[in-house]
């Protein structure tokens, strides 16, 4: 009887500790994070959902620019999270051609809060420690590392490290990629290569000659960082 009680008590204690820690984070997070963002990205920005991007450690200026774009009346660029939400819901439209109605979710979030509240949210995520990447090895990961570090000169593909930094932690306008979900990255690379993402012609040029296997390799490597 006692042997079975001790592990059970330990599990309960661990669950209680984890719950209290999560509640504390939820309590301290800005309203925009707890009400809107956490549903897809998690309170700490380390979403376990492979089809949404991780936001922990993402440069605040970059994230703020992305959010602010949805407040522009001229038709902001399609956000990655919205694109994935549409895909999950079974949308048949290309990400670059969603209707105004389909964009309303992200636009609604952007307009629901003041610029100051948006800034508080992106700063919150920027300050959260990114989770460690998945520890994996193998030929695919090594191929991805080679591509990230050196590019593919024969295809005129620039090394990813040139803009995103040697550790993939981001640099200037180029966002953090280290530890990002591979599934999310693969679809982003596909969107760039097809020209669906209009806001970064540089990425369209870099990815237009990547094949599917090379994109998977790069994503597999980045997920391990």
Q: Describe it for me?
A:
57% of the residues lie in helices and 0% in strands. It has helices at residues 2-28, 31-41, 60-69, 80-88, 104-112, 115-127, 139-150, 161-164, 182-194, 201-207, 212-224.
The total of beta strands comes to 0
How many separate domains? 2
DSSP strand (E) fraction? Answer: under 5%
Would you identify the regions where 5 or more consecutive residues have pLDDT less than 50? 1-6, 10-21, 74-78, 91-99
Main attributes of the structure:
single chain; 225 residues; mainly alpha; Cytochrome Bc1 Complex, Chain D, domain 2; 2 domains; 11 helices; globular
Question: Would you spell out the secondary-structure blueprint of this structure?
Answer:
Elements: H1 2-28, H2 31-41, H3 60-69, H4 80-88, H5 104-112, H6 115-127, H7 139-150, H8 161-164, H9 182-194, H10 201-207, H11 212-224
Helix pairs in contact: 3-6, 7-11, 9-10, 9-11
């Amino acid at each position: 009887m006692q042997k079975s009680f001790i592990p059970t008590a330990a599990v309960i204690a661990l669950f209680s500790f984890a719950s209290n820690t999560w509640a504390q984070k939820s309590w301290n997070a800005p309203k925009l994070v707890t009400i809107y963002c956490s549903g897809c990205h998690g309170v700490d920005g380390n979403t376990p959902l492979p089809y949404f991007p991780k936001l922990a450690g993402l440069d605040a200026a970059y994230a703020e620019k992305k959010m602010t774009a949805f407040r522009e009346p001229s038709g902001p660029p399609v956000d990655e999270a919205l694109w994935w939400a549409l895909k999950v819901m079974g949308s048949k439209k290309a990400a670059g051609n969603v209707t105004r109605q389909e964009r309303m979710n992200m636009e609604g979030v952007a307009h629901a809060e003041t610029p100051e509240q948006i800034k508080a949210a992106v700063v919150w995520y920027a300050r959260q420690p990114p989770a460690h990447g998945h520890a994996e090895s193998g030929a695919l990961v090594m191929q991805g590392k080679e591509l990230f570090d050196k590019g593919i000169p024969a295809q005129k593909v620039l090394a990813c490290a040139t803009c995103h930094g040697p550790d993939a932690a981001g640099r200037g306008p180029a966002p953090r990629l280290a530890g990002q979900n591979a599934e999310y990255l693969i679809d982003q690379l596909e969107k760039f290569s097809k020209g669906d993402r209009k806001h970064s012609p540089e990425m369209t040029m870099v990815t237009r000659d990547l094949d599917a296997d090379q994109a998977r390799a790069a994503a597999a490597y980045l997920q391990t960082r």
